[in-house]
Amino acid sequence: MNRRDLLSGLISGVGVSLLYSELSFGDEQDRKDSEGQNKQKDQTEQKELKTIYLTIDDGPGKHLESILQNLKNGKATFFLVGRAMENLEGYSLVRKALEAGHQLGNHSYSHPFFSRLSLDKAKSEIEKTDLLLEKVYREAGKINPKLFRFPFGDNGCMGCKRKNEHKREINSLLENLGYSAYSWNLDGEDWKYGRGKTVESILGKLMMIKSGDIILTHENVITARYIVPYLVSSGKYDLKVLEK
């Protein structure tokens, strides 16, 4: 082999090596770019989740078990009626909900209109359920955050156009018992099913959810079969418990 052929062979070899290196570098760079884009996409999707606070009133009852099953990827706050907690089955379900990371709140003992109660009766309604909640929180080794929701949203002055003395007294009573009252800013309207509302219209209302919303629902078949599964499986929401 003469010198010219030898140089030509070396140059060709170097060229192939350089080309292979460039192609390999390009493939590696494409892989890194793709991974970076996927990571950025995942982070963006995570950031776009709306933090919401699902509240479920009037339990414990026969739908709580299925609701808990569907809430494995989300958390909720259950506002409980004391008299429904007094039987073993109801109490066991409430304990199960707490141990699963959900929050428990006081929804009175018998679900009355507070605007129709004397102050003493209102106090009894709150305290009787408080004793039950304290027991279940203590057994679970957790602290009761003392969250309260008025039945029917009646804070002692239902239909009043301005604050009255009875409402002030009841709210002062709540405060003295260590409680904070929580309302809602989006009504899931599950309770209107069969009264002019269909499953489709109820789920349509949920399309209005904004980040930070406190959503009112009740422990019933609509919440268990449709609302909770939708909120959990949609991939749009991060369901959190209410905190003081």
Count of DSSP-assigned helices: 8
Q: Tell me the overall shape.
A: globular
- What value does the Rg take, in angstroms? 29 Å
The amount of beta strand, in percent, is 5-15%
H and E string: HEHEHHEHEHEEHEHE
Straight-line distance between termini: 88 Å
What's the structural domain tally?
A: 2
If classified by CATH, what would the architecture of the largest domain be?
Alpha-Beta Barrel
- The overall pLDDT average reads 87
Q: Which homologous superfamily in CATH is the superfamily of the largest domain?
A: Glycoside hydrolase/deacetylase
What structural class is derived from the secondary structure elements? alpha/beta
- Main β-sheet: number of strands, strand sense, barrel status? 6 strands, parallel
Would you give the CATH topology of the largest domain? TIM Barrel
Catalogue the unreliable spans.
Answer: 6-23
- Provide the helix percentage: 40-55%
Any overview of this molecule?
The chain has helices at 3-47, 64-70, 82-85, 88-99, 119-139, 165-176, 199-205, 221-233; strands spanning 50-59, 76-80, 103-106, 147-148, 180-181, 186-187, 214-218, 237-239. It folds into two domains: 1-48; 50-239, Alpha-Beta Barrel (TIM Barrel), CATH 3.20.20. Strands 1, 2, 3, 6, 7 and 8 form a six-stranded parallel sheet that branches. It has eight helices and eight strands, in the order αβαβααβαβαββαβαβ. The longest helix has 45 residues, at 3-47. Helix 2 (64-70) runs parallel beside helix 8 and helix 5 (119-139) packs parallel to helix 6 (165-176). Mean pLDDT is 87; it is low at 6-23. It has 244 residues and is of the alpha/beta class. Helices cover 50% and strands 14% of the residues. The radius of gyration is 29 Å and the shape is globular. Helix 6 links the parallel strand 4 (147-148) and strand 5 (180-181).
